[in-house]
Amino acid sequence: MALPILKSVVACTDFTKTVQPYISQLYDVPQQFYHSATDPQALKELYLNTNPLISAFAISLTLVPIIALVVSEINKNYSQIDRVWSLLPTFYNLHYAAYAHAKGLPTQRLDSLAIISIVWSSRLTYNYWRKGGYTVGSEDYRWQIVKDYVNNPVIFFLFNVLFISWAQSVLLFSVTMPTYVLLLAAPIVKAQTADIIFSQIILAFIFLAYAADQQQWDFHAAKHSYQKVAKVPASSKFTAADLDRGFNTKGLWSLSRHPNFLAEQSVWLTLYIWSCWTTNTSYHWAGLGAASYLFLFQSSTWLTELITAGKYPDYKLYQQRVGKFVPSLWGEGMPDANAEGKKRK
Predict the structure, then answer these.
(1) Are 312 and 247 in contact, with CB atoms under 8 Å apart?
(2) What SS3 class is residue 190?
(3) pLDDT score for 343
(4) What is the chain's percent helix, strand, coil content, to nearest 5?
(5) Could you give the CA distance from residue 137 to residue 120 in angstroms, rounded to a whole number?
(6) Which residues pair with 256 in a beta bridge?
């Protein structure tokens, strides 16, 4: 049996009933897949007879990291997981929705989440594409900095295996674990008004992330043009002093140093809270994914800001006056760049 028989909605979050009995399938699935690879009907039966959380976990443990590791080592480019970052969580959420359809479970909640996931992927993929992320040879500049800091090919290879290729792949699976809980709850809890509210909240965070991305894009487009021709573009909302500062402190970026990151983390945190609400629980095991996601953003943002503060003299003042993610109620905000320029003169 691929899914547990549950008598209460709270039981949907019981790890010993919903996950632990199926862990052994992790060992069986690879061999069964090998024997069924050329038989579509056998593959369909394997898919339906495997717990959906386990099949998703198996993909994140094996297929994705192996491909990412091989390609990254051949090309010496370590942004392979970055290229599928915006796609994998949606793939897993679509998988849960498809599995529910195949099993004849109520799917209204999962279908809504699948659509939201596609919107989320569209926004993030578009932003990554327009910044050149899919250009041949493109790589996150931070990987080279980490590689130079490690300065040991063996240690960095192990870092690539354990973190870049494997841990990040599992992380992108783990943020969707609450969707599995929602799948289990589908036969017990009918779609309700709360589902619409949570859907709208997630969409609002996606829109916030898009708005922040666009403001950042506009700033850097104006900055690059200004640096090239020594003239602020006529259509720019920024002044020469703003662009000379080197980093954006206008719009959403005047309230948060990383409003796009705030919105991105909030998407997956809201999904977890949605699963808690649906199952009448305060917390459960599937929150590990959202917690890990938040931890990753804390550490990666620390590195990003360390680099940025070394490039721009005013950035340390920005760190003091503007909250990293959540806007500070007591923050003074950044002073106007034009006023600061006059003072210095």
Answers:
(1) yes
(2) coil
(3) 52
(4) 70, 0, 30
(5) 25
(6) 323
Instruction: Say how far apart CA 18 and CA 5 lie, in whole Å.
Output: 9
The whole-number pLDDT of residue 336 equals: 79
Long-range pairs for 249-252 at CB < 8 Å and ≥24 separation?
A: 249/318, 249/322, 249/334, 249/337, 250/215, 250/219, 251/211, 251/212, 251/215, 252/208, 252/211, 252/212, 252/215
Give the separation between CA 170 and CA 177, rounded to whole angstroms.
11
Q: Please write the tens of the pLDDT for every residue from 138-186.
A: 999 999 999 999 999 999 999 999 999 999 999 999 999 999 999 999 9
Q: What are phi and psi of 179, to 5 degrees?
A: -65, -35
208: which 2 tokens?
Answer: 């916030």
Task: Tell me the three-class secondary structure of 264-293, residue by residue.
Answer: HHHHHHHHHHHHHHHCCCCCCCCHHHHHHH
| Whole-number CA gyration radius for the chain | 23
Q: How many residues does the chain have?
A: 345
Evaluate whether 49 touches 62 at the Cβ level (below 8 Å): no
Q: Write the Ramachandran bin of 37: left for phi over 0, alpha for psi from -120 to 50, otherwise beta.
A: alpha
Q: What are phi and psi of 19, to 5 degrees?
A: -125, -55
Report residue 233 as tokens.
């573009």
How high is the pLDDT of residue 338? 65
pTM exceeding 0.85 = yes
Residue bearing tokens 């919903």: 18
Residues 6+ apart with CB under 8 A from 45: 36
Q: Report which of 179, 166, 129 is spatially closest to residue 286, judged by C-alpha positions.
A: 179
